[in-house]
Design brief:
Protein name: 5-formyltetrahydrofolate cyclo-ligase
Largest sheet: 8 strands, mixed
Strand content: 15-25%
InterPro entries: FTHF_cligase, FTHF_cligase-like_sf, NagB/RpiA_transferase-like
CATH topology: Rossmann fold
Order of helices and strands: HHHEHEEEEEEHHEEE
Number of helices: 6
CATH class: Alpha Beta
Strand order of the largest sheet: 4-3-2-1-5-8-9-10
Family: Belongs to the 5-formyltetrahydrofolate cyclo-ligase family.
Number of domains: 1
CATH architecture: 3-Layer(aba) Sandwich
Helix content: 10-25%
Catalytic activity: (6S)-5-formyl-5,6,7,8-tetrahydrofolate + ATP = (6R)-5,10-methenyltetrahydrofolate + ADP + phosphate
EC number: 6.3.3.2
Radius of gyration: 15 Å
Oligomer: single chain
Distance between the termini: 24 Å
Structural class: alpha/beta
Length: 181
């Protein structure tokens, strides 16, 4: 899946990102949300950072990797400016700014490697999002809405899941919006 999304050329990536941003711009969950977690696209992930300019009245946050012994992501306010610091995976992160508790975000747009229509998500394998939003296992309905962002080619019929996997509420691709739970 990673190779397939990386194989998309720059124009295909740009068009897919624009189509996803357009689809999200009419998505009821995003329209209701005030505090939104985003991600910095890497490795062929769909780019939805254009939402920051499209919705200046909303507050957007980028994930910041934890330092041991803290296993959860932090989300730091991002205003759409360039970032110079790169974390241990070479992903740009804000180094300063207002941190917002992850469980108090309204919506988190999450990257993924693969997904299925039921909301199962295959990430990069480190488990950061699953640990950060594990509260949803204990208190269904607690925390933000979790929406995966992907290219349609990343959809598979069925993914295996483990007990610690947190299912997505939905997935948005350039051609479909999936409601999962």
């Amino acid at each position: 899946m990673r190779a397939a999304r990386r194989a998309l050329d720059a124009n295909q990536q740009r068009l897919a990102g624009q189509a996803i941003v357009n689809r999200l711009s009419h998505h009821p969950t995003l329209l209701r949300a005030r505090h939104i977690g985003l991600y910095w696209p890497m490795d062929g992930e769909a780019d939805v950072r254009g939402l920051v300019q499209r919705f200046p009245e909303k507050r957007f946050y980028l994930p910041v990797l934890p330092h041991a012994p803290h296993p959860q992501l932090r989300f730091v306010r991002w205003h759409g400016r360039a970032l110079t610091y790169r974390n241990r995976y070479h992903i740009p992160e804000p180094v300063r700014g207002h941190s917002h508790p992850p469980e108090q975000l309204d919506l988190v747009l999450m990257p993924l490697v693969a997904f299925d229509p039921s909301g199962a998500r295959l990430g990069m394998g480190a488990g950061f999002y699953d640990r950060t939003f594990a509260i949803q296992h204990l208190l269904p309905g607690a925390g933000p809405r979790l929406v995966g962002i992907a290219h349609q080619l990343q959809c598979v019929p069925r993914l295996p899941t483990d007990s610690w996997d947190i299912p997505l509420h939905g997935v948005v691709t350039e051609s479909h919006s999936y409601r999962c739970r």
